[in-house]
Amino acid sequence: MEFGPEITKIVDGLTKISTVMDANTSQQAENFKKILLTLTDDPRVILIKLADRLHNMRTMDFMKREKQLKICSETIYVYAPLAHRMGLYSIKTEMEDLAMKYMEPDTYRYIAKKLQDTKRERSRYINDFIRPLKDKLDRGGFNFEIYGRPKSIHSIWNKIKKKGVSFEEVYDLFAIRIIVDAPTEKEKEECWKVYSIITDMYNPSPERLRDWLSNPKSNGYEALHTTVMGPGGKWVEVQIRTKRMDEIAEKGLAAHWKYKEGKEDESRFEQWFHQIREVLSNQDSNSMDFLQDFKTSFLAEEIYVYTPKGDIKMLPVGATALDFAFSVHTAVGSKCIGAKVNHKLVPLSHVLRSGDQIEIITSAKQKPNTEWLNFVITSKARSKIKDTLKEEKRIIADDGRGLLQRKLDQMNVPMNNANLEELAAYFKQPSTLDLLYAISIKKIDLKDLKLFTVQGDKLIPPKPVKVIDEPKETDNTQQQQSHKKDSELIIFGENSDRIMYTLANCCKPIPGDDVFGFITTGEGLKIHRTNCPNATRLLANYGHRVVKTKWAKNKEISFLTGLKIIGLDDVGVIHKITNLISGELRVNISAMTIEAKDGIFEGNVRVFVHDKDELDNLVNELLRLPGIERVDRYDTE
Fold it and tell me: Do residues 36 and 155 both lie within one domain?
């Protein structure tokens, strides 16, 4: 106790759990849950944890590949969004860039090189853009700083993916930042004056105005963002904020206490912690569910919506009318039958947008049902719906308890916990409640009890069945066992053992792709690409099941993959494409569909290739054809 109880508590929040977990949960999820339990008491824990994680990310060069993937995935899945939510933007950015460096090294190097190559012309452009602005702001008597800064590699990559453009077409590779020195009472006024000067000089894009002055983010971030048309027809993002706002933007949560003067941003921050505390107090949920709920409820960006009386409520992006009803009150959510958004009637599943005004319609006859879980995203709504459903289940399960009690009395066996759990395992039920519920609704036939033997007070099953929940790889991908011909020999670890495996349907790897092996339950080893849509979730939650994987040099087997081709609908374009693929390059086409509309065609071609080199060569050759705009690989069914 040398450092006193306060430090002890912080350290305990950071100390990992040493107890052994059951197979359905994950050590990583348990550790994270423990950190969050301490976070709501003392947010300094999270600052230390984020600093520790950033240090780990900076020192990963000499770690094993599978360890790098596991750490990067956890970081992208949980820690970077958490840093973002805490307003620690520089930490979040560095974490994302470092994770990308290890998870998608080729893309990372490509963008880094492009940024390096275009540095001079970017600097020249920024200077041309800033010069007239600086003069005007000087004449206006403002005390300010103005500079340009490049966007992070990760955010540029996100733009390329989201907008489907090349590096050259990403218009906001950099942002201009203007920091004004203004007294607290004049901050908003000064920022809007600067905005007015900028938009007098350069035309703004109306839909790209972000006003976080009137509505600060819950992590305290305040600023004005606008995108304007600069010289030479280029869009430029401009961020305007004051010195105080800049310090909060750079130091986030840490600066929050410095300016804690009972202002509105404090109440929002506290409100966020209050919501987390509420969810953490409901300790029933298993760690995996908790982590997933926490991600959607608390790590997403937020929207601001209004009650009929004009009170403001903060909800995560993607929240529905039903989430709003539960945020008002549990009783309102449970009785909700519909809502009016901006005075128009909408269903419960209607997704809300910032600025919406919502009125909830209730009925005494309404009660929660299982379907509601498909469209609510906030932890509060999910946990309350689950609680109600569980209560209903319990009432029904009581009948099953009576039936089972009579059967066990006939066998002279007590109905204790051990026997109930034995039966739940035998009948493949996740819990004893589910067992009694299934008996009650006649899903389980108790005739099977004849197969059990009795030893003293114990029920002995005929054959023990072990059930382990498998993490679903994706909700919309049907898992199919890959055929033998799809499987190729692969080298694992240092000892070059050759093991059979199947390829994951969600990302369809081909030799040469950056991959990892994942031990599933029931389907053996599956190979995923490191940039598979499910990779971060699997690696972040089940890092202990990851196997180091390397391709063997075996060119005998072909792999099916897909290409999406977009271009100008010109005479003979299809003939040129098929001639190139089958004729010149001798690549086998499995299927092809072409759709043309208003002078643009979109083609989907499924081809058999031996490895990534062959696929890359095919893509490059297709892009050389006149009129072809884009060629993208796609892998999902």
Answer: no
**Amino acid, single-letter form, for residue 104:** E
One domain for residues 170 and 252: yes
Which has more pLDDT, 114 or 492?
114
Extract the tokens encoding 9: 């508590």
Kindly report, residue by residue over 8-27, the tens digit of the pLDDT.
Answer: 766 766 665 444 344 445 66
**One-letter amino acid for residue 266 of the chain:** E
pLDDT number for residue 232: 84
Residue 99: give its domain's CATH number: 1.10.3210.10
User: What is the C-alpha to C-alpha distance for residues 97 and 620, in angstroms, rounded to an integer?
Assistant: 27
Cβ–Cβ under 8 Å, residues 299 and 219: no
Split into its structural domains, the chain has a count of 6
Domain shared by 17 and 102, yes or no: yes
**Does one domain contain both 403 and 312?**
no
Measured CA to CA, the distance from residue 242 to residue 301 in angstroms comes to: 23
Q: What is the model's pLDDT at position 585?
A: 86
Question: What CATH number did the domain enclosing 615 receive?
Answer: 3.30.70.260
pLDDT of residue 144: 93
Both tokens assigned to 534: 């499910």
pLDDT tens per residue across span 284-316: 556 667 777 777 767 777 788 889 998 888 888
Q: Which two tokens stand for residue 460?
A: 């002995």
pLDDT tens-digit map of 160-201: 887 777 787 776 677 899 999 999 889 999 999 999 999 999
Q: Are 335 and 366 in contact (CB under 8 A)?
A: yes
Per-residue pLDDT, averaged over 85-107, amounts to 89
Distance CA 32, CA 38 (A): 10
| Cα-based torsion angle of the residue sequence 412, 414, 420, 426 in order, rounded to the nearest 10 degrees | -20
Instruction: Provide long-range contacts, Cβ within 8 A and 24+ apart, for 587-592.
Output: 587/614, 587/618, 588/558, 590/560
The whole domain housing 206 covers 125-256
Q: Which helix (H) or strand (E) holds 313?
A: strand 312-316
564 three-class SS? strand
Task: Choose one of 492, 517, 551: the last residue of a domain.
Answer: 551
**Residue 186, C-beta contacts closer than 8 angstroms, at least 6 positions apart:** none
- Average pLDDT of the chain is 81
If residue 621 lies in a helix (H) or strand (E), which one and from where to where?
Answer: helix 612-624
**Exposed/middle/buried for residue 449 (C-beta within 10 Å: 0-12, 13-18, 19+):** middle
Which of 120-129, 409-418, 543-552 reaches the highest mean pLDDT? 120-129
d(CA 461, CA 483): 36
179: nearest Cα among 90, 244, 241, 126: 241
CA distances from 235 to 129, 228, 238, 260 (A): 11, 6, 10, 37
Kindly tell me if the per-residue pLDDT of 266 is higher than 70.
no
Express each pLDDT in 556-567 by its tens digit: 677 888 999 998
Instruction: Classify residue 77 as exposed, middle or buried by CB count within 10 Å of its CB (0-12, 13-18, 19+).
Output: buried
- Asked if 623 contacts 565 with a C-beta cutoff of 8 angstroms, the reply is no
Q: What is the dihedral of CA 537, 538, 542, 544, to 10 degrees?
A: -130
Among 402, 404, 400, 445, residue whose Cα is nearest residue 427: 445
Identify the pLDDT of residue 205: 87
Contact, 607 vs 560, CB < 8 A?
yes
